[in-house]
Amino acid sequence: MMLNTLTCMKSTSKTRTRVFLDTNIILDVLSSGTRLHREASRKIIQAVCNGEMEAFITTQSILDTQYVLSKEGSFSFSKFSQVMLFIMSFVNVIQIDGLSIREALKNPTGDFEDDAQFIQADSEGFDVIVTSDRRFLARQEDNGPLLLSPEDLIARMS
Length: 158
Hints:
By secondary structure, the protein is of the alpha/beta class. It has a single domain (16-157), classed as Rossmann fold, CATH 3.40.50.1010. The protein contains eight helices and five strands. Strands 3-2-1-4-5 form a five-stranded parallel β-sheet, sandwiched between helices. The longest helix has 14 residues, at 59-72. The two termini are 22 Å apart.
């Protein structure tokens, strides 16, 4: 992502949607590889930066992002640190707690990481989980956060 082109202009809106960002949203923006959802994910990050919504990522997402970017050679650790500290200036960071991990272990649906993130997002009361993972999107349940692709969230924002 051209983070140097990202300028945060804070919105005056008082009610903001609380959005949980899956790891792949950050990767869509930062990865040097081909990413199908790059533009929509970039728009989401811009909206969060502008204060149009309140976004959250997990500590695990930061670790996973650094691992993937280091493997593809996109970022030195120094550059990654600079970029992630900038993102963390407007995206909240949470942990997946032990209760969510236990629940995900007891009720697996086939993707442990997605299970744990969904349970944590639900327990935190998030309105939406944004992901570009088709399997995660297919998990939509009657209760809990709404699962949306980056493009679907952008469409709802318009």
